[in-house]
Write a structure and sequence with these properties.
With 73 residues, this protein is mainly alpha-helical. It contains 2 helices and no strands. α1 runs antiparallel to α2. The longest helix has 29 residues. It is elongated, with a radius of gyration of 14 Å. It starts with 13 loop residues before the first helix and ends with a helix.
Length: 73
């Protein structure tokens, strides 16, 4: 099974929040690489991981970029 989510830090300090969101970018990029080579994975695992990747890269990452842009002003 391809693992997607993981618990993030529970702190609200800006440095930790920035590290958390960039860790998610690296993690989802890693999942995409593993998915590309997942020849032996079940169809449901592949489709679930692909759906999570699609949602992250089309919605969450765009929201992250917008939020970062707003925070840096």
């Amino acid at each position: 099974m391809l693992q997607i989510g993981r618990q993030s830090r529970s702190t609200e300090d800006p440095r930790s929040l920035l590290l958390d969101c960039h860790e998610r970018i690296r993690r989802f990029t890693g999942v995409a690489v593993r998915l590309a080579g997942a020849a032996g994975a079940s169809g449901s695992d592949v489709s679930g991981a692909a759906a999570d990747l699609y949602r992250y890269f089309t919605r969450a990452l765009a929201l992250h970029a917008d939020d970062e842009d707003q925070s840096m002003r």
